[in-house]
Design brief:
Length: about 200
């Protein structure tokens, strides 16, 4: 059985250049998969923001929404119409006090993974913290108990196992960005690697 296929004419307009459609939902992870208990899960913010810490219950008390979004991996596969349940980034941002000079965010995760994103790309109402996919709790392999989802850029920016945000005035590079990946990762421009 083929795991990937070329998009048909109708789907083609939704699939960025160089991508194939995945029939399943592939799992790509560098290093070990963290196993995180929601009872001890903690989410922190620091940097150019009033430092704060949030529990799982704090997040679950925020408005929850259903999202349907296409998902594009830099390794050249896409999955259309992924159905998530989560919390809008903009709803979370209303809880914290970010300084006006903030222009960049570093996403921090259980397991030590980091990835950078501009504030302009991060603080959008279509971005969300996901805790379910296709109505099921997000598995550890897919980033559970919670991951960020940023549909308009490549999925390595949709950090799995997210547990913190560092707010910055200037850009710092995260794990893959320090290892040759593009600092932004716009799929339609094929911003896969630095210099592309």
């Amino acid at each position: 059985m083929k795991f990937f296929q070329k998009p048909d004419k109708q789907e083609g307009e939704r699939v960025p250049p160089g991508q194939h459609l995945a029939k399943g939902f592939p799992v790509l992870t560098y290093g070990e998969t963290p196993q995180v208990n929601i009872e001890t899960w903690e989410f922190r913010v620091w940097g150019l923001v009033k430092p704060a810490s949030f529990t799982w219950s704090d997040f679950m008390s925020l408005p929850q929404h259903e999202f349907t979004a296409d998902f594009h991996c830099v390794t050249r596969w896409s999955k259309l119409d992924v159905k998530w349940t989560g919390i809008k980034v903009t709803d979370f941002m209303s809880l914290i006090d970010v300084e006006p000079q903030v222009a960049h965010v570093m996403e921090h995760c259980y397991g030590g993974y980091t990835t950078n994103i501009s504030m302009a790309d991060f603080a959008r109402s279509e971005n969300f913290f996901a805790f379910k996919v296709f109505s099921e709790p997000l598995s550890a392999e897919h980033g559970g108990p919670m991951r960020l989802v940023v549909p308009h850029i490549y999925a390595w920016k949709s950090a799995k196992w997210i547990n913190g945000l560092e707010f910055l005035e200037k850009e710092k590079l995260g794990f893959w960005e320090r290892n040759g990946y593009h600092s932004r990762g716009e799929p339609w421009a094929e911003e896969r690697y630095s210099g592309s």
